[in-house]
Specification:
The protein has three helices and six strands. It has 143 residues and is of the alpha+beta class.
């Protein structure tokens, strides 16, 4: 399930910067989400990321990977990249027409709230297509 793209901890100009690049292949099963979330938490804690950022990243990972498993075609890949003082969470899938839309949190519907949660926790979010894949991402400050 877990594949290391690369991981480097370099002493640089900014001691609060996180320099990492990790990937996880997420099986197309809902129960895989909790396993990936726990592995992400362990990895980030080992890198010295503050607990508040670990918690935010873990929730975003849960929401984005659950959406991909529920609404998209496999394969689903999670990537976390350290960019200065932020972590970028990317979830890549093969796309589908059944994408969840941003919905009003006041709605009685049990679905569609994950995008609102992600937008509330991240400093920036986005989505783009690349070579038949959909990449949804969120940036979370670590310092």
């Amino acid at each position: 399930m877990h594949t290391t793209c690369k991981e480097e901890h370099l002493s640089g100009v900014d001691p609060a910067a996180i320099d990492m690049d990790r990937c996880w292949i997420v099986p197309q099963r809902r129960e895989a989400v909790s396993s990936v979330r726990r592995d992400v938490q362990t990895t980030l804690k080992a890198c010295g990321v503050a607990q508040a950022a670990v918690d935010s990243v873990a929730l975003i990972v849960s929401e984005l990977t659950t959406n991909a498993i529920t609404h998209a075609l496999p394969p689903v890949t999670l990537r976390i990249i350290g960019i200065g003082r932020e972590l970028r969470i990317e979830v890549v899938d093969a796309g589908a027409s059944n994408r969840p839309a941003l919905q009003n949190m006041q709605s009685a519907d049990e679905h569609g709230r994950g995008n609102v949660i992600v937008a509330g926790l991240a400093s920036r979010t986005g989505q783009h297509a690349d070579a038949g894949r959909i990449i949804r991402w969120a940036d979370v400050p670590v310092a």
